[in-house]
User: Fold NAD-dependent protein deacetylase from Gymnopus androsaceus JB14.
Amino acid sequence: GILEGNDLQAISNYIKSGKCKNITLMLGAGVSTAAGIPDFRSPGTGLYVGNFANLARLNLPYPEAVFEINFFSSNPVPFYTLANELYPGKFRPTLTHAFIRLLSEHSLLSMCFTQNIDTLERRVGVPENKIVEAHGSFASQRCIKCGTPFDSAKIKEMVLNFSKDKVVPRCEQKGCRGLVKHDIVFFGEALPKAFGQAPGYIRNSDLLIVIGTSLTVHPFASLAEIAPDTCPRVLINMETVGSFGEREDDVILLDKCDKVIKDLCKELGWEEELVKIWEE
Ligand code: OAD
Assistant:
């Protein structure tokens, strides 16, 4: 194996050895739960499970419908209700987000592939060319009928006022009036072009770190399988997921990601830098 062991110490030693130059990240909702944004599938608190008040109130046929393009076309109200609650600007990046920027500042970040739509990777200051938002984000929006982009300032105001106004944004092109939707990848929609680069990045990585995802949504989840044997895989999550544990160089660290990241940075001698970025 590439690693001396299957623990935090081994990862730290590998990063410090200088042999680990390209680190690729795969992120999911667990990275942002400490920021106050619920994930999707954690028992009791996930948006899709348990009785999280937000979704129960939306009267959906089933929870995932809130992110389904066909359902949205017939009823966009649940999506905009949720968008009002989850809109970027209301949340602060976590220590784990600070770690992404730290990797980038140490010239170790190859690429950060995130499933999250909260834009907290950008907010913490990770350079844009190091982030691929595989499931899109709230950063842009367009008409689902004619594709015309819709003004960002205007939709922001509408989303933030949605809880009282209940006005759904509609296309302003003459005679269109199509529904406007953020460029979030809904079930049944294609992933952004930039996602196509993912296999290349992962094949050329020295380390793959997967954080806070159940690895249940494909094609994103399958990326973890592409890592070659020369690329150890690290999982930082509350539960074991995917095929982690099947390979010699798999490292599984089951705990809250902010805690694991803090411990890792302590080993690396990066703790002060980490906290400095986080406190900015
Ligand atoms: P999930 O909710 O499916 O999984 C989140 C994972 O993070 C779970 O395995 C949790 O145990 C773990 N987790 C939660 N809090 C954590 C913490 N503080 N530290 C470490 N781990 C923690 O979320 P995703 O895998 O991101 O799509 O879901 C994938 C996609 O499903 C999302 O991108 C979303 C959804 O449909 C869209 O919105 C388009």
Observations:
- The radius of gyration is 19 Å.
- The chain has a mean pLDDT of 95.
- The first helix runs from residue 8 to 16.
- The CA atoms of residues 35 and 94 lie 6 Å apart.
